[in-house]
From TrEMBL:
InterPro entries: CoA_activase_DUF2229, Dehydratase_Activator_Redct. It comes from the Bacteria. It comes from Clostridium acetireducens DSM 10703. Residues 15-212 form the DUF2229 domain. Gene3D superfamilies: 3.40.50.11900. PANTHER family: BIFUNCTIONAL PROTEIN [INCLUDES 2-HYDROXYACYL-COA DEHYDRATASE (N-TER) AND ITS ACTIVATOR DOMAIN (C_TERM), BIFUNCTIONAL PROTEIN [INCLUDES 2-HYDROXYACYL-COA DEHYDRATASE (N-TER) AND ITS ACTIVATOR DOMAIN (C_TERM)-RELATED. The lineage of its organism: Bacteria, Bacillati, Bacillota, Clostridia, Eubacteriales. This is DUF2229 domain-containing protein.
Amino acid sequence: MWYSFWIGGEYINMKIGIPKGLLYYKYYPFFTSFFTELGAEIVCSADTNKEILDEGIKHCVDEACLPVKVFHGHIASIKDNCDIILIPRLMQVKEREFICPKFCGLPEMVLNSMSNMPKTITEPIYATSRKKLFKWAKKAGSMITKDKFKIKKAFNIALNKQKSFSTGIKNNNFKLNIALVGHPYNIYDNFVNMNLVKKLNELGAGVLTLEYIDDKFINKEVKELYKRPFWTFARENYGFASHVVNSQKVDGIIYISSFACGIDSVVVDLIKNKIGDFPFMLLKIDEQTGEAGIVTRIEAFVDMLERSC
Ligand code: SF4
């Protein structure tokens, strides 16, 4: 049992729960350093595992995509060990684009399906400018301290941490190279993707992800579309796939997607129409997906690429 208490305008011994799901993989440096700088203790969930997945399935509606179910499991695993849980309602990271409708309603999904929840931070996050993001920081920070100077300082430190953080995969010295396309929580959560990158490497294929491609190349590809994509994931994944084919950077593309993802259902077709007969494999995953099936499919794909080299 822990004890947090409010003294002189701030909480002492405050524990903030941060679920390791969805865009945690991209933005954890910002969130963890912001709350740490405010003096809170971070309670982060474990890497996704079978128990977390099972809890997610138990607490989430059947129709949801796998990443949202997994997110529920992360919440369930830490909710009893913290004073406040962060449920990031991430709306925008780029002007004139949105993340996904599921992100907009994520707090409501969680709060309607889980009981005995602690307090939550659910303020919408518009990360399209420093000013807009600071608005979120002021509201979230005020749940821990009334010291405005401390919130501003924590925000600046957190933003710098995020700016100096880089992610992405670029394997060198492989005979074959494959572009791995998909959402960060499918690419970087090794439980969800069943260690896909390691498996490809063992088969002799290197992996490239979109973080290693300059945004200007991605945007150039997207400009050729009839209409600018409304969703950030759509712009990035379409632009990346299209660019690696045009620039002959890879031998094939694997798109890792979740069943019930509306955005992917459109993007995958757009990519297929654009790239013609370029080697492409769609791996759709949900909680029923078996590892043996994934292995068989990637072995066959790599084998096909080797033969056509
Ligand atoms: S983008 Fe697709 S996979 Fe991601 S949360 Fe939305 S529906 Fe689910």
